[in-house]
């Protein structure tokens, strides 16, 4: 993952989305050579010298203060997650990385296996699925049939045509959210070798991913809903919750899905659960 000037690319992408009249500057018309604000205009809004701001866009953030970053963030009208991302890019954290497969406490797998009427899975920091229950494979992707190195949601969203078909009209929202999360995570841990390898693979194999990556959208995963066109039961709407696991450093979150009680979607889940022969991660481990 090329990180030569992540800070500069992020600043340019955010500057490009603002127009002078949006921030109270006078636009004198005529064709502008660059989309959005000029560097001189952004520097004026942030109250810093043009030369100083140019150095930041060149990736030189040595000794930049939090106050200056805050001023630039306000000038660029960054949201809370973008604001935090800017600070992390300017002052990259240094984290240690565990070697080997993700560590999974047996009680977490037991928890997943006990959830029989809704999908549930554990995911790592680069969208790698570490453990899952049977309904996860039955509804989303048959993870037991996926090679371990491709057992990430990023692979499945951007490279698995069958899964894209299941997502239907919802694919673009899911795909852009996935890329925005990878950007978010890259700011949290810029030296993660697994994340770097994943992004490089996607940039090579998926032009659509590369286009989304270049937009520098930044967002963590938040509770929402999954919309799936299932080949057996038709359309499913499944609200989900995101539970973080601070005591498990190799795991990013536990994802739990549930249909509205008494709804047609709950009945469809029960039907799939009663007939599915898909494997959970513990089933797969026992078979191997």
TrEMBL record:
Gene3D superfamilies: 3.30.450.180, lambda repressor-like DNA-binding domains. InterPro entries: Cro/C1-type_HTH (IPR001387), Lambda_DNA-bd_dom_sf (IPR010982), MLTR_LBD (IPR041413). PROSITE patterns: HTH_CROC1 (PS50943). GO terms for molecular function: DNA binding. Residues 36-83 form the HTH cro/C1-type domain. This is Helix-turn-helix domain-containing protein. It comes from Actinomadura barringtoniae.
């Amino acid at each position: 993952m090329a990180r030569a000037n992540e800070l500069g690319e992020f600043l340019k992408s955010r500057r490009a989305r603002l127009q002078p009249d949006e921030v109270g500057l006078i636009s004198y018309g005529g064709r502008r050579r660059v989309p959005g604000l000029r560097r001189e205009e952004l520097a004026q809004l942030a109250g810093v010298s043009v030369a100083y701001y140019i150095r930041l866009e060149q990736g030189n953030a040595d000794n930049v203060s939090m106050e200056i970053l805050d001023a630039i963030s306000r000038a660029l009208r960054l949201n809370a997650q973008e604001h935090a991302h800017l600070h992390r890019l300017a002052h990259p954290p240094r984290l240690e990385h565990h070697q080997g497969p993700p560590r999974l406490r047996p009680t977490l797998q037991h928890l997943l296996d006990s959830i029989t009427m809704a999908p549930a899975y554990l995911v790592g920091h680069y969208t790698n699925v570490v453990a899952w229950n049977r309904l996860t494979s039955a509804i989303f992707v048959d993870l037991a049939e996926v090679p371990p190195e491709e057992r990430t949601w990023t692979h499945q969203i951007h490279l698995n045509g069958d899964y894209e078909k299941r997502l239907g009209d919802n694919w673009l929202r899911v795909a852009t959210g996935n890329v925005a999360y990878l950007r978010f995570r890259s700011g949290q841990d810029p030296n993660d070798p697994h994340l770097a390898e994943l992004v490089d693979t996607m940039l090579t194999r998926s032009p659509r991913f590369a286009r989304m990556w270049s937009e520098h959208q930044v967002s963590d995963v938040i509770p929402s809903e999954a919309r799936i066109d299932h080949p057996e039961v038709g359309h499913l709407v499944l609200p989900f919750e995101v539970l973080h696991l601070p005591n498990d450093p190799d795991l990013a979150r536990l994802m739990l899905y549930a249909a509205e009680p008494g709804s047609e979607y709950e009945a469809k889940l029960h039907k799939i659960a009663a007939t599915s022969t898909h494997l959970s991660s513990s089933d797969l481990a026992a078979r191997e």
